[in-house]
Amino acid sequence: MKELELKYGCNPNQKPSKIYMKNGELPIEVLNGKPGYINFLDAFNGWQLVKELKKATGLPAATSFKHVSPAGAAVGLPLTEVERKIYWVDDMGDLSPLASAYARARGADRMSSFGDFISLSDVCDVDTANLIKREVSDGVIAPGYEPEALEILKAKKKGNYAVIQIDPEYVPEEIETKDVYGITFEQGRNELVINEELFSNIVTENKEIPESAKIDLAIAMITLKYTQSNSVCYVKGGQAIGIGAGQQSRIHCTRLAGSKADNWFLRQNPKVLNLPFKEKIGRADRDNTIDVYMSDDYMDVLADGTWENFCTEKPEVFTREEKRAWLDQLTDVALGSDAFFPFGDNVERAKRSGVKYIAQPGGSIRDDNVIETCNKYNMAMCFTGIRLFHH
């Protein structure tokens, strides 16, 4: 198949629409459903991300994409009991490594992942299909599907769930193009290999970056490689816990990603874990309620006449002081930035979310100030010398 006609482009008024190859055959096969223009953008960006994560770590990888940026990305490490609970998979028994990767990718920012497009590095197994089955999602791309897993996915969304199989051996051309306003842009593909060597130039007084942190930094940088810029990514324990994408200001990226990382950790607080939800309340409504409960707008769900819709008894307020005390326990977080930090305020904000390890290109005229701020908090920061803008 050389081309595939689509229903429409980014919006329904943008017709005609298709994907096609200038040379050769399309490296994909649509096994179910009718993926759209944005679905394919998410699928191809996500596939590149998980393929590189698998190559860098040797572990199965998954990502949850929304509007051409990842909401989460992770590798297939075992879930803790707390993680199983906050990701709503504590009723599913032991999960395969690939299913664990998706549970972590989906669970890091469940609000943003609602209605996602999934990319998997490995053949989709039954565990992963059963997990996908219960989430609100538009589709999935993977190098293959176990027969039973494919049947589970085909039944999703009344038979309309998009299932794409991609040739894992496909190698794109070295030059890529795109048209904007009738004008063609051309550039060489970003074939930068991200590995531990990228983190060897440590510029802070603290020179200690353990192997586990280097893996997390690699996950951060690979995630950033396929995130709309400007972007910042917080990672802990093999999964992105906060991604700030598409902001014009670097500090806004850092704040956005940091607030998402904070929410990921706040969900693990006993007050949140033990919210007395009514049995009939679905996962999406629980996610929405938790998000508001943890925010400064908590009275929107705790007001009399409202909390009764979600809970069997009125929850206690999760005070600002309690939240800050809990967040102070978050440590050893790795942070990657797709371009240099222009000011030390990014480091100050990162510190509040437990960041200890930072990878960024370096090259700002205020590098000394940024390094000094890291030294104040005994952080280890490396300059990669590489920018990772993606548009």
Mean pLDDT: 96
Briefly note the structural class of the backbone: alpha/beta
Radius of gyration from CA coordinates:
21 Å
Number of domains: 3
Q: What is the count of β-strands?
A: 15
- Measured by DSSP, the beta-strand proportion falls in 15-25%
Write out the strand line-up for the largest beta sheet, numbering strands in chain order: 3-8-7-6-4-5
Categorize the overall geometry.
globular
Give, in order, the helices and strands: EEEHEEHHHEHEHEEEHEEHHHHHEHEHE
Quick one: biggest sheet? 6 strands, mixed
Give unreliable regions as ranges: none
Count of alpha and pi helical runs? 14
- Going by CATH, the architecture of the largest domain would be 3-Layer(aba) Sandwich
CATH superfamily of the largest domain, by name, is AICAR transformylase, duplication domain
Q: Please give the alpha-carbon distance between the first and last residues.
A: 27 Å
CATH topology of the largest domain, by name, is Cytidine Deaminase, domain 2
CATH class label of the largest domain:
Alpha Beta
The helical percent reads 25-40%
Quaternary state reads: single chain
Any overview of this molecule?
The protein has 391 residues and is an alpha/beta fold. The chain has 3 domains: 3-171, AICAR transformylase, duplication domain (Cytidine Deaminase, domain 2, 3-Layer(aba) Sandwich); 193-266 and 329-383, AICAR transformylase, duplication domain (Cytidine Deaminase, domain 2, 3-Layer(aba) Sandwich); 270-317, no CATH class. It has helices spanning 37-57, 81-86, 97-107, 110-113, 126-133, 147-154, 211-225, 250-266, 270-273, 283-293, 299-302, 320-327, 345-351, 367-376; strands spanning 3-6, 17-20, 28-32, 61-66, 69-75, 116-120, 137-142, 162-166, 175-180, 183-188, 231-236, 239-245, 333-337, 355-360, 380-383. The strands form 4 sheets. Strands 3-8-7-6-4-5 form a 6-stranded mixed β-sheet. Helix 8 packs parallel to helix 13. The two termini are 27 Å apart.
